[in-house]
Amino acid sequence: MSTRVFALFLILPALLLAPPVLAQKQSLDVVRKVVIDPGHGGDNKGALAYNGVYEKDIVLQIATKARKEIQSRTDSDVLLTREDDRSVGLKDRVTMANEAGADLLISIHCNSSFSLTPQGVETYVLSEQALKEESGKLSRQVVQPRGLYASAADSSAAAVVKEMLQYSAFRDAHTLASVLQGAVVRRTKAMDRGVKELPIVVLRGAEMPGIVVEVGFASHPLEAEQLTKDWYQERIAQAIADAVIRYDQIAAQARSGVRTPVSKSN
Ligand SMILES: [Zn+2]
Question: Is residue 143 assigned to a domain?
């Protein structure tokens, strides 16, 4: 037996005993870039939780965990609208998502009430009225034919493209909202307050499906305690990743012409 063959006999068992290759990241077809927006920041502290922690800190921790979770499970890019405790304007957050060419915008907030009893998770999409107002504004704006509208011949054609993008984003936002609401409730076992429509500023003008998820009530003693705990934040982060993956499947199927109903189990 030559030394080379002998060496192979030594190496082979070692190769067979080698630890299994880590699970491969899921390759997403539609969702190539996600912008996660931790609400508030800097002087804008958000709600003061029952246990004395500010909303701005809770949502930044959850957003950071969600980015890690999405990046470890998928090949999608994730950007945060703020990486640290700084103030960012609401319009700047949407602009950031639009300019990044994001496929989804997920804004994370905590709810709050004067009463200690309200609890649970709810997800918001832009109201239809607000969407119409945004469309109305487009007719009075000069939309530069660049970026996503680069193919438009002039600024009025670019405005039409922008309006179409906002309408299709609005429709898909409902799918994202219902998938995400279901995922967060399933992972956290929190009360399901459902999906609602509001004229939310941070979603106005978004050219991709955008939602605001209120991950719990900072004013509720138990939820406030949970929201500041690593293990609970981790569950919310996992739910956000679950939702991104599920949304991608639904969107990819819709593109290929296969219709999948969005049920609570998604
Ligand atoms: Zn908030």
Answer: no
Residue with tokens 């699970």: 23
How many independent structural domains does the chain possess? 1
Contact 112, 55 (CB under 8 A): yes
DSSP 8-state assignment for residue 94: H
Residue length, the chain? Answer: 266
Centroid of ligand 1 to alpha carbon of 108 (angstroms): 8
CATH number at residue 183: 3.40.630.40
CA distance 239 to 36: 14
Distance 89 CA to ligand 1 centre (A): 13
Would you give per-residue pLDDT tens digits along the chain (266 residues)? 555 655 555 555 555 565 555 678 999 999 999 999 999 999 999 999 999 999 999 999 999 999 999 999 999 999 999 999 999 999 999 999 999 999 999 999 999 999 999 999 999 998 888 877 877 777 666 666 566 666 666 777 777 777 777 888 888 999 999 999 999 999 999 999 999 998 888 888 888 999 999 999 999 999 999 999 999 999 999 999 999 999 999 999 988 876 655 554 44
**Residue 75: HSE in the Cβ half-sphere, 13 Å Cα cutoff:** 8
How far does residue 206's CA lie from ligand 1's centre (Å)?
A: 18
- Ligand 1 centroid to residue 46 C-alpha, Å: 5
* Residue at 39 is within a domain: yes
What is the extent of the structural domain holding 214? 25-138+169-255
